[in-house]
C-alpha cells in the first residue's frame, strides 16, 4: 500500500495585508528545489484580472513567476476584490465546501508537497456557516500563520493564535513577514518574543519585505536562511543536513 509523506500545509494570515503569498511561493519553490514535487492550491481567490482573454489569479501567477514548474490550482476565482462571500455574491455564485473538498482530494496525492493558500484569515466567511477556519478543519491540515510585522498588531496575532487553539486547529507555527532589517519600533522588535512568551506557538521564520519583481533565487535564499523549513513541514530534509 502507498503512504504519502504528509507535507501538506494550510497558510493563512492574521490580516489582509500579511503578504503571505511570498511565503507560500517561497516555501513551495524551496521544496521544489530540494527535490519534492510541489503544488499550490488556492480554494477561493478574489481580485482576478483579465489578461490575454483569460481570467487569472495574480497570486497564482506570482507562484508561477517564482517557479513555473510548481503546479497551481483553484476552485473559485472572482474578479471582485472583497471578502470571498461578497465576491461570490457579486457573481451570483455560492462557494460550496463539498466542491473544495473534492478538488483538494483530487490533487492531494499528485504533489509530494501541497500548500493550500487561504484568504483573509480564519474568521473570513466563505458562505453561510462556512468560515475559513471550517475549511482548515475540513481539509485536516496543519496551519502556518503569516504575520506582517509592519501591518499586524500583537493583539490580533494573539487572538488568532488562541482562536486556532480553541477550535482544535493544529498550528505549526508563525512566520513574520515584512520585518525591517534595522528596527527601532519596540512593537515590531519585540513581536517574535511576545508571540512565544504569550502562546505555545513557535516563530518559525522572520523574512524581510519583498517586491514582486524580485529575483526568484533571492526568495528561495531568504526562505532557506530565514525560515525553519523542517519545522514548517515537520520533516527532516536530508539536503538541509549537508
Secondary-structure map with pairings?
Blueprint: E1 9-13, H1 20-33, E2 38-45, E3 49-51, E4 54-56, H2 58-66, E5 71-77, H3 84-90, H4 97-108, E6 113-117, E7 125-127, E8 130-131, H5 132-139, E9 143-148, H6 154-166, E10 171-177, H7 186-189, H8 191-198, E11 203-206, H9 216-226, H10 229-233
Parallel strand pairs: 1-6, 1-9, 2-5, 2-6, 9-10, 10-11
Antiparallel strand pairs: 3-4, 7-8
Descriptive account of the structure:
- The protein is of the alpha/beta class and 242 residues long.
- The chain has a single domain, classed as 3-Layer(aba) Sandwich (Rossmann fold), CATH 3.40.50.300.
- Helix content is 38%, strand content 22%.
- The chain contains 10 helices and 11 strands.
- The strands form 3 sheets. It has a 7-stranded parallel beta sheet, sandwiched between helices. Strands 3-4 form a two-stranded antiparallel ribbon.
- The chain is globular.
- It starts with 8 loop residues before the first strand and ends in a 9-residue tail after the last helix.
- The model has no long low-confidence stretch (mean pLDDT 90).
Amino acid at each position: 500500500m502507498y503512504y504519502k509523506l504528509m507535507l501538506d500545509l494550510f497558510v493563512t494570515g492574521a490580516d489582509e495585508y500579511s503578504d503571505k503569498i511570498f511565503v507560500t511561493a517561497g516555501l513551495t519553490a524551496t521544496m521544489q528545489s530540494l527535490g519534492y514535487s510541489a503544488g499550490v492550491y488556492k480554494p477561493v481567490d478574489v481580485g482576478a484580472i483579465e489578461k490575454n482573454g483569460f481570467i487569472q489569479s495574480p497570486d497564482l501567477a506570482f507562484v508561477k513567476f517564482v517557479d513555473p514548474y510548481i503546479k497551481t490550482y483553484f476552485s473559485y476565482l472572482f474578479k471582485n476584490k472583497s471578502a470571498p462571500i461578497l465576491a461570490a455574491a457579486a457573481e451570483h455564485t455560492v462557494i460550496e465546501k463539498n466542491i473544495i473538498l473534492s478538488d483538494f482530494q483530487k490533487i492531494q496525492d499528485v504533489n509530494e508537497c501541497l500548500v493550500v493558500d487561504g484568504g483573509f484569515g480564519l474568521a473570513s466567511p466563505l458562505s453561510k456557516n462556512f468560515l475559513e477556519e471550517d475549511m482548515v478543519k475540513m481539509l485536516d491540515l496543519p496551519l502556518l500563520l503569516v504575520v506582517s510585522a509592519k501591518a499586524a498588531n500583537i493583539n490580533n496575532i494573539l487572538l488568532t493564535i488562541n482562536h486556532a487553539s480553541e477550535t482544535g486547529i493544529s498550528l505549526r507555527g508563525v512566520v513574520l513577514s515584512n520585518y525591517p532589517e534595522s528596527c527601532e519600533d519596540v512593537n515590531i522588535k519585540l513581536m517574535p518574543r511576545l508571540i512565544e512568551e504569550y502562546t505555545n506557538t513557535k516563530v518559525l521564520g522572520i523574512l524581510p519585505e519583498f517586491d514582486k519583481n524580485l529575483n526568484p533565487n533571492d526568495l528561495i535564499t531568504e526562505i532557506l536562511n530565514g525560515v525553519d523549513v523542517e519545522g514548517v513541514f515537520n520533516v527532516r530534509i536530508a539536503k538541509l543536513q549537508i
